[in-house]
Amino acid sequence: MSDLLVVGISDYKMDRCPNVFVTYALGSCVGICLYDKQTKVGGLSHIMLPESSMFKNNEINRMKFADTAIVDLVQNLVRLGADSRKLTAKIAGGAQMFEVQQGSMVGTIGDRNIVSVKNTLHGLKIPILAEDTGLNYGRTVYFDLETGIMKVQSLSRSIREF
Q: Would you say the pTM of this structure is higher than 0.85?
């Protein structure tokens, strides 16, 4: 029997099957599902901002940023038994939730999050198998460690499986 494990904003969790992760309210944030299908070890990260280098404080929450959260999650997945060379990714989120003034940095945060997630995964040689990103609506992501399936649920839209 599987447990439903909730991943909050600026948070990540990892485990092995049969558990299911869920993260709610992905607007401009991005959810990153990492999975080793051989060991059925995986994790879900809910990042809020693209890069930790924008902040000088050494006391930052590393789970908040794409560039640090993904690296840390991979290290923790390896400790749980995943093979870093066999990890794959599925991502969702990065929406533009509000109309904003042209050229506003706030308005591009979703796009910047997506780019940072993709760059970090590329640097770690983790292929992205599926994505549901951008546009202008929020998402809830479920990630099943038994099957490796990412389900994306949005208001007034059908549930999509990747």
A: yes
